[in-house]
Structure formats: C-alpha cells, structure tokens
Amino acid sequence: MNRRSAPNPAEFSDAVDASMPIAERLFSELEEKTADGVGVTRGSYGEGEQIAHDLLEEAATSLDLEIDKDPAGNLYMTLPGENREAPAWFVGSHLDSVYHGGNYDGAAGVIAGVTAQAALQRLGVTPQRDITVMGIRAEECSTWFVGHHGGHLGSRAVLGLLWPGEMESAIHVHTGRTLAQCMDEAGFDSSYFRESSRPYLGPDNVKGYFELHIEQGPVLHCKGFPVGIVTGIRGCLRARSARTTGFYTHSGAVPQEMRQDAVLGTAELVLDLERQCDSARANGRDMVFTAGKFFTDSDHHSIVKVPGSVDFAFDIRSQDRAVLEEMQDYVTRRAAEIGERRGIEIGLNEMSLVTPAVMDEGFCAHMRQGAELLDISYMDIPSGAGHDAADFHDVGIPAAMIFIRNDHGSHNPDEAMELEDFALGTRLLAWTLVMLDE
Ligand SMILES: [Zn+2]
Question: Which of 7, 123, 302, 367 has minimal Cβ neighbours within 10 Å of its Cβ?
Fold first, then answer.
C-alpha cells in the first residue's frame, strides 16, 4: 500500500459514498439501454448482455483500470496491486438477465466491484495484489440455452468445468445455435476450450472470489438487515423429466381399488417428499422442496378419465450434501414402493445432484469483523439460489458472498434494492478486499 497506514473504517465509508455517483449512473444507463417495455432483457451472448459489458468496460476505462477479456467473453477490470505476480482477489457477478428481468440481479455485483475500486483509488490505496472485477457471461443461461448443459456457462468455461461436448449440446433457445457458435459469433473463441487442457482461471491466478448479489428471497427485508453474509450456497437434487405411467380408464365405471391412477400416485410421492422436508427442518437440517412441473397429457386427459400419465419435475435443495444423498435414496425407494402398490410406474429418469458450496469461513469471519467496524448491521444467511461463486468454490478457490436486502424477489422487474443498502455492502466489499492482506 502506498499510504503509510490502512484507511480507517470512516475513510472507507466516505470514499465509497463519494464514489456512489458512478454506481448510480451505471444502474440508470443500464436500465435505460436494456429496457424491454416490461423490465430489462440481457440475454446470455445476446444484445442486452453486450450492452452491459460495453457500459462497464467504458466506466472501467475512464477509471484507468486495466481491461482484459477471455475466450468466453468474460470481462476483467483490474486495479493493479503492488505484487503483480501474486494471485488476485476477484470480485465477480453476471451481466446477463432473464427475459423481462430486474435491473439488479447480477449487475449489482459487478457495479459494486467497480465502485469499490474507484473508492480505493480515491483513498490512494495500492492493494498488495491485483483486485480484478469480472463481468461474467451466461449465468442466466437456463433461460437462454436448452439442451444438455450444466448452467453458469461463462464461469464454468473459464474454470475448466464444462462437460465434454457441452459447447455443442447447449443450444440457444431462440437461434438454435450451439454455445460454441454463440461464443464465436459474439467475437470470442470457443476453440480455446476444446484445445487447451489448462483452465483459464484457477487457484494459481485467483486467490479468492467475492460476489455481491441482491438477496432473491424475503429474509433480509423481513428481518430488517440491509446486508447478509452468505454462509453457503444450497446444492440441489433434481429430477427434470420424471413421468408416472398408469392406465387410462373410465372415471365412474372402474372400482377405486382397481384403478392405476397416475395423478394420485404422483401426488402421494410429492406429499411424502414434503413431509420428509418438514421433518428434516424440524431436526435442524436445511432442506426445501418444490415440484414445479406436474401435468397430465392434454391430448388424452379428461374429467371423465382416470389419468394414465403424469409428467413432473422436482427440485430439492439443501446446504448439506448428506441430506441430498439421503433424499436421492429415499425418493428412489418410495417411487418403487408407491408404484408397486398402485400398479403404476414412477420413472424418475435421470436425477442430477449438485453439491452445496460452503463459503470460506475465514472470509466470512473477516467480513463479520468488517461489518462490526463499519457499523453495518448484518446477519448470516444461506443462499437458496445458485451463483457463479459456487463454481469458483468447486475448483478450490475460496469464495464468499454478500447479499443486499431486496424486496419482491428477483428475476422480475419489481426487484427493489435501495442504493443506501447497496452502498453499505460496497463499503464492506472495499474494506474486505484491502484488509485481508493487512
Ligand atoms: Zn444472479
């Protein structure tokens, strides 16, 4: 650091407040330029995402930050540190959005990073190592890409986490182009990820990863805390395309005990899973459960038919991998038992299990200390939704997240984050990045 001593907490707070006009301008330009009449649309590898990248690059250039891009099109904005060879602190989030999304989900994290960098410049701080803000591509790719893919395509590409063939099996929902074609047509280089065996990012160039994000649930808002320190990101057990097969028959003529009713069998399984979820929580374990798809075949269903088929999906999430593994065994066993007793077949097809990501306890403890010093009221909170931070964690890069209070959930135009809360989270971020090396 080129100052004699580290700034005190009040200096961090003042410098972030003085840099807030940068954030305010970016939020309003971003909203204006990616508005779609309902909310904002910044499709992965699409026009809105590119507009966001261009705006951030322009802002970073005017702050004299170093600009770089990787072969997947992720954007890097670096405040140089004293030791340029040391692995850097990374601050990242995504710049894409869902269709008709809100202005803050994703963008807030990147804008917080750049605002924190501007505050450090204002304080005359040269950090011990580089501080790089990363604008990540295609985090919302579940909206924009169908086919066989594992999500978070921008970060997973550069962390070396793409599955073999995923560049070709992820298909853009509107254009039908593969992920590789989308990358190349946007001016990047998908061949890097086929030809290079060395991941672009890893523990040798990233010392730790921080992500600020709006909370996507109501907890901070209801409990009255502006900031959350995220303890972990829930993993999930999913059956995306389960199908129960029974037997279509007359709804009046066939005795109840002789029916092979696909709806009742599937309902029994789903309610059974809800009871498991309730009892897990009663025992102090973390678990949430949703059956977000549940439908009969509209070509065959009728009010006067016993239903012969149901398509359904479920999503079980927990911070505890053991819970997900136990549920995988449980649901498999119960599907077989219910199917046998009712004379139906409950086919779960392929289930996928994504491991929960635990946030780095050292970083969390450091951030709690920062929040106390900066006089920011906070609570510890798990993240129910997935984030790029989990992918950094998965390759052995310690990761941490800051949540900002937000009303009305996310992925909709009614996201409501107060800029005062955002400024508090950004103060904590700036303090954390500098003081970790002090
Ligand atoms: Zn997000």
Answer: 302
CA-closest candidate to residue 75, choices 32, 114, 33, 118: 114
Output the CA 387–ligand 1 centroid distance in Å. 6
User: For residue 263, what are the CA distances in angstroms to 124, 346, 349, 373, 414?
Assistant: 66, 11, 18, 56, 35
Q: Which residues surround ligand 1, an ion (CB under 5 A)?
A: 105-106
Domain residue limits at 166: 9-234+356-435
Q: State the distance from the centre of ligand 1 to the C-alpha of 213, rounded, in angstroms.
A: 7
**How far is ligand 1, taken at its centre, from the CA of residue 94, in Å?**
6
Question: What's the rounded Cα separation, in Å, for the pair 317 and 322?
Answer: 11
Taking only the tens place, the pLDDT of each residue in 154-175 is 999 999 999 999 999 999 999 9
Task: Please identify, among 297, 331, 354, the residue that sits at the C-terminal boundary of a domain.
Answer: 354
| Centre of ligand 1 from the C-alpha of residue 67, in Å | 23
Q: How far, in Å, is the centroid of ligand 1 from the Cα of 106?
A: 4
Per residue in 337-383, pLDDT (tens digit) is: 999 999 999 999 888 888 899 999 999 999 999 999 999 999 999 99
